[in-house]
Amino acid sequence: MYRSFYDMLFYRVLFLILFFIGFSNTSFSQAPSKFVITDNNSKVSLIFDSRESSVVEIAVNALADDILRLTGSRPVVANNMSNVTGNVIIVGTKEQSRFLKNDVIPASQVPVGWETYSYTFVENYTESIPLAMVICGADKRGAAYGVFDLSKKLGVSPWYWWADVVPGKKDQLTVNPQDFLSQEPSVKFRGIFLNDECWGLNPWASNTYEPEEGNIGPRTYARIFELLLRLKANFIWPAMHPCTNAFYKNPENPKVADEYGIVVGTSHAEPMLRNNVDEWNHHSMGDYNYMENRETVLKYWDERVKESLNHESFYTLGMRGIHDSGMVGVGSREEQVKVLEKIISEQRKMLKKHINSDVTEIPQTFTAYKEVLDIYDAGLQLPEDITLVWPDDNYGYIKRFSNESEMQRAGGSGIYYHLSYWGRPHDYLWLSSTHPSLIREEMMKAAHYKSREIWVANVGDIKPAEYNMSLFLDMAFNNEKFENPLSEKKHLEEWMISIFGTGTGEEAAAILWNYYQLNFERRPEFMGWSQTEPTRKTHFTAFSLFENGDELQKRIDAFDELSQKVRELRGHIPERLDDAFFQLVWYPVICAGYINKKFLYTQKAYKYASQGRSSANDFARKAQDAYENILSETKDYNNQLLNGKWKNMMDFAPRSLPVFNPPTKVYWDMTKEEGWAIATEGNEEIRRSKDIYGPLSLPEFTNLTHQSYFADVLLKGLDSLQWEVIPSENWIAVNKSSGVLSGDFGDKQERVWISVDWSQFPEKDRSRGKVTLKGDDGKEISFNVYAKKYQVEKEGDGNLFVENNGYFSIYGENYSRVNNGGPVEWDILEGLGYTGSSVWVNPMKSFTSTDVVENASVVEYELWVDQRCEITVHIYCLPVHPLTKGHDVRIGVGLNEEKPQVISHKTYGRSETWKQNVLSNSAKVTCRFIVQEEGLNTLKIYAIDPGVIIDRIEIDTGGLPNHYSVLPETRCIPVVCGN
């Protein structure tokens, strides 16, 4: 018998193993090293049960088509096991599929919860099926997500059709047979709002893709719904502008939504699934006025509720005007509250009567958009089961988050967020330019404050918002992946790699990141410095030609650099992906550069003409060329891509606003000008050659920061000039010593950069020299160069900030010290802001404000001031809103040990201040102090309200230059200000 207890245990275990091997056809043992979908010898079969929902069948057939795209061979799709041999992929839900009964997969792999799915690899499924991959969904959408997730892993992008991301061909398709069980989505309902579609989606659908419908119809919606499923979304607010037929006008539209498992709702202005702009007939129905036309209004809603029975719907409650306007027929705020409460009560009676006697089981939303938020704040009482949807301010900054009591609502809360917008102060419908870091920062606050019932993004026409739409929906599906700052930057890189491959994908992501960063300073559509509603003419930009290193030219150069990288990268893109590259990278980056150049070159032309520069006409022509290039690129988008697949989709001038107009054609007669001249940074005047020597000078140089300033040598009527630069001192450095100007296009002026070589600077603390430009006509022009050498001693490792020609420039994240310990704390927020990062009062750590400012957490910036003076401190914050009704956006600001001044950048309604804030992504607050002692001083900023984000700080001591962009930081260089 057994020699020991361990021998007995060994043989019993061996017996059990042999038993299962010999007598069980279905095994959960270790699967092979790979699951073959297709190779030279075999291909997989796809199996689903005919009793499954249509979305499962749609997903399975889409997977078959994806395998065809990848391999050139489409697998068999069947709903029975007859004559099936070889590996199979079985797709279904536990409740419906006959193929998943009888413990085909272990209990631990059965998905439970909302829209979850699992992958399980089963050996010896039958005698003729050696290995089965089982995709099991907890529900119909869970099963579909599992299928489309597999497609993505195999190499088919969710954007294979909508952005023409053609997958590469593969001889063999395999997957790692690793069991997997998904988590529930972070947000229950995740989707998009098709909006302002009259310049892209509607004309494309009506004339190109679905001309038989003559509108956005079921074929177009089927394409959109497939994209949503591939992006793991489940929800839509259909298109609703006057150009578009109401969704329910064609009964095939809701039918297609049901087939694809997409839940249909309507926007903040469309209660009870009604599209008022198309469906309310004023002539036959009277005014859309509940107070004076109650019975007709109620009947209108009631008919749609009955029609929506058996469709998956999310009902918007309340009432506004016909379109995006306030409710008519009511007066005071108190009356609005009472009437809206009565309307909601009657709407719920309809739902209870026609949909479900337990009205709390019916998905319902109340969107507190624009004036509706004021009504809600006035005391509107909402049933607890209604989902309260918080909107942003249309420009990416969420107006409100749930407070502690609202977080407890049974219906929860959600977010309506804009990635595209029509309205005041200005539209941004053309190019998608919302910074991914802003999306992450705002939406992760929403997740933190439990707004997880519904997220819906206004994506305009879908194109060209492909990436931001993907980011938004990926965040909605899995919040956890985006908890850390810069996770969005990693996401962009991974997204681009999934399309263009390693190397190329990283380069494309870096280009787009810089594109978003430039557009964060000013969106392309805002470059005319104009507004709409009412529409106003364009103006010169606020970028300075003569200060801050010529901000106009620096912005032009930045876009030129990006455009050059795009052109070089396109040469490395495989031909099959060239159309995708054009749509996702080329068109937005190149055209954003062109619209910037249109305005910046125009501004240069007029300013230079006023100075008599011969180059003025060249810049006017460059502005015209930029406009013509936008036309050309847009024509290619509409006509050349895939032989016109996207014809009518891209309109570079939606609503024909002035910002999209061609530049005014101008020509200045410069033949009356004489000679040549120079222009130096900091001076709008120019120095002519007849002014041999004068007081013209550059801003002062110091050894505390790295500085360089420019001087332009320019023609004023001459046809040519040979020139040379002659510094008077060996410590004056120039980047070029000579040059030639001519009357040729683009060759009428040249820029020289001047700096100081401190290793050659004399021992004395201050010195003056001059730079002389000498022409071959024998004439000379000179300007002064002043430089000062400081001796600065500091203590500690923190940063020290110094004055530069009458101002300090500080990047918020580069503080000297931080002392946390108050109710809320300071943290660095990477990736967001003009400077690339910010410092913020982290709302993820605490929800509490403080009124005891002196005990608050404080971030400190150490300043070295060389004289007693008055200073004006400008703090540039991001224009976020108070977290809840009970919060503000305050900080305390103090100098040294002075009592801090409490200031706020809170705005009200759509004030002019708010308009300027969202146009520039900056909210400036200002305070003043007296510096009592020269030397070291400390600027202290106290954390009062959570959520405040400080981008940069500027301190004016009497010389702050005119500028729009961020000024170079005047942080003392370590070699001078070291310990």
What features would you describe in this structure?
The chain is of the alpha/beta class. It folds into five domains: 27-181, Chitobiase, domain 2 (2-Layer Sandwich), CATH 3.30.379.10; 189-485, Glycosyl hydrolase family 115 (TIM Barrel), CATH 3.20.20; 524-660, Methane Monooxygenase Hydroxylase, Chain G, domain 1; 676-788, Immunoglobulins (Immunoglobulin-like, Sandwich), CATH 2.60.40; 800-977, Jelly Rolls. The chain is built from 20 helices and 38 strands. It has an eight-stranded parallel β-barrel with strand order 9-10-11-12-13-14-15-16. The protein has a six-stranded mixed β-sheet with strand order 3-2-4-6-5-8. Strands 27, 29, 32, 34, 35 and 37 form a six-stranded mixed β-sheet that branches. Helix 11 (371-377) links the parallel strand 13 (364-367) and strand 14 (387-391). Helix 14 (487-500) crosses helix 15 and helix 17 (578-610) runs antiparallel to helix 18 (616-639). The longest helix has 33 residues, at 578-610. Mean pLDDT is 94; it is low at 1-30. It holds the Pfam family Glyco_hydro_115. One of its GO terms (biological process) is carbohydrate metabolic process. Keywords: Hydrolase. Residues 801-968 form the Gylcosyl hydrolase 115 C-terminal domain.
